[in-house]
């Protein structure tokens, strides 16, 4: 009598480390209490966020960069709620960039003739407390299916003037690789879409996500630009630096959009260190963004004049490849405008002479050629 073959137990494949880290994110007041010595303001803000407000999510990696004891820590100020979030400051808006008014199809926003923004998911690895889309991120639904995005695809097919598409959310790199690749493949079937940008904070808050598997899956769909979001030199850890190098080595141009934040990076020395560090890893400082006037974030917002002052301190002292544009994304969604110091002292139109003040403190005349 023959014996039955032994049934070998099948061990499921290990979960990718980045997904395990997402599952282990700090999401509650209790989680924050275990990691931080919370102040009364932080505890009040966290309780409110947990009950009814903008949700909490912090990866263990990003939490490890913060100071457990110091509430002024620049990482901690970005991720731990505060009681001030309940206050509505002067100029605060629920939808500061007018995205709802500029929605041309479900999940598709167009504010410029040749560009559009696709909201592919409402999930992020970390929910930053200054998020311009705090009204909708983390509210359920997760990654959008291709079926749900079909009206957006149809709009793009019907409007070939849209050449540049930004995939945002939420954070598209927090999506599973097959789902993200399927989305990009669908967009690549629209011949008028020339450039795709991935708006992501993953290199900052979850660098383990930048894997060979992800890069190999995305490379066939170049040109893909990565628009990331480092705000402070502490975020340029060895892990994040390695993630930036992997992206650059795989042919992804990396541009950084830094938000000017009160008590985080609103001084020239901090930003100079950050911008030089980014260039060292082949990431281009692209924008220094005046923070959007999102409801409940006025405690993190700086006056416009502070950004101008910082740019004046950096101009001429920082390499041009390390110097971003200071940008104001105008309320209501009417477009970005550059802002900065005025270096023109006088202009004589009749004589064609313009006098400039230089970063070295010298007044110099520029003379137009004869007509």
Structural account:
The chain has helices spanning 17-23, 29-35, 40-51, 60-64, 76-79, 146-158, 177-188, 202-205, 212-218, 238-249, 268-280, 304-314; strands at 103-105, 108-112, 115-119, 164-168, 195-199, 224-228, 254-260, 283-290, 325-329, 336-338, 344-348, 353-357, 363-367. It has 371 residues and is α/β, with parallel strands linked by helices. It has three domains: 18-86, no CATH class; 103-338, TIM Barrel, CATH 3.20.20.70; 343-371, no CATH class. The strands form two sheets. The protein has a ten-stranded mixed β-sheet. A three-stranded antiparallel β-sheet has the order 11-12-13, with no helix packed on it. A hairpin with a 4-residue loop joins β11 (344-348) and β12. α7 runs parallel beside α9 (212-218). It is globular. The N and C termini lie far apart (108 Å).
Topology:
Elements: H1 17-23, H2 29-35, H3 40-51, H4 60-64, H5 76-79, E1 103-105, E2 108-112, E3 115-119, H6 146-158, E4 164-168, H7 177-188, E5 195-199, H8 202-205, H9 212-218, E6 224-228, H10 238-249, E7 254-260, H11 268-280, E8 283-290, H12 304-314, E9 325-329, E10 336-338, E11 344-348, E12 353-357, E13 363-367
Parallel strand pairs: 3-4, 4-5, 5-6, 6-7, 7-8, 8-9
Antiparallel strand pairs: 1-2, 2-3, 9-10, 11-12, 12-13
Helix pairs in contact: 7-9
